[in-house]
Design goal:
alpha/beta, 39% helix, binds N~5~-D-ornithyl-L-ornithine
């Protein structure tokens, strides 16, 4: 997944409100209700310690403040450490954090210090976005298309296969496709089959990955991808419902998954 930019996180609240209303309309459930069912638990009174990390490309302005906003919107107490990196880690534990959130350029993790549970953003994001796609009320069948089998896409494909969906996938990397076929039993999407999907989970860092031949009219596309894989004109022409948001949905899934 691409590194987030401060601009991606502008208007996080408005971006989330829009996704939340689409999620409710197309699945009949709110994001937090989906998470409760998915993970079998509700958030309690956990305190979230958020640690700014300077490694690699360094601090992304708006990142830790966005995480704090999300934790608080979910009803949790949270704080951003004054110090960064190891000193921040020490400070978060000293000041009573139950759950730590921190990200460098490669990995974004949530770690629950009370129960030891650990999750990556890749995994939690793959699970929640694929789950949202799979809950489409107007789905024509149990066939679902996964575009991209990197860390996020693979996690989603695995989740869908375990739920019993008929999973098709595409990825330019032959090894990724073979691995998903061997380990998960998913089928390769071939455009010659002329199959059109009403549920699509897109997990690539690329634009224009969704083409007209893949999708049915009024389908649901669920994607954490930045930029969006769905070209605007295709979205309009096929009257696609789109769930796409840069951080809130994935972080909500992370927090529920470590409770
Ligand atoms: O955006 C990222 C990476 N793409 C990892 C996400 C995995 N889905 N990292 C954020 C880096 C934040 C920065 N180190 C900070 O401000 O603490």
């Amino acid at each position: 997944m691409a590194l987030l930019t401060p601009e991606d996180l502008d208007n996080l609240s408005a971006q989330f409100e829009e996704s939340e209303s689409t999620i409710e309309r197309v699945t009949g459930s709110k994001l937090t209700d989906i998470c409760k069912e998915l993970y079998g638990k509700d958030l309690g009174s956990e305190k979230v310690g958020i640690i700014p990390i300077t490694a690699g490309n360094g601090i992304i302005s708006n990142f830790t403040s966005s995480l704090l906003f999300i934790a608080q919107r979910l009803g949790l107490e949270g704080f951003i450490t004054q110090h960064t990196d190891v000193a921040g880690y020490y400070e978060a534990i000293r000041d009573g954090a139950d759950i730590l959130l921190m990200a460098d350029d490669h990995l974004f993790i949530a770690h629950n210090l009370r129960n030891g549970k650990l999750v990556t953003n890749h995994e939690a994001t793959g699970i929640i976005y694929s789950e949202i796609a799979s809950r489409f009320k107007d789905a024509a069948s149990s066939e679902i298309l996964v575009i991209g089998l990197g860390r996020v896409g693979y996690a989603g494909a695995k989740h869908l296969a375990e739920k019993g969906f008929d999973v098709y996938a595409c990825d330019p990397n032959r090894d990724f496709l073979d691995k998903a076929a061997d380990e998960l039993g998913i089928k390769e999407y071939c455009k010659e089959d002329r199959k059109k999907f009403s549920m699509v989970f897109e997990a690539t860092p690329n634009a224009n990955t969704i083409t007209e031949g893949m999708i049915a009219e009024r389908c649901l596309v669920s994607t954490p991808g930045i930029p969006c894989g769905l070209p605007q004109e295709v979205g309009r022409k096929y009257r696609v419902d789109l769930v796409m948001e840069p951080l809130f949905i994935g972080v909500t899934s992370m927090l529920y998954s470590v409770i």
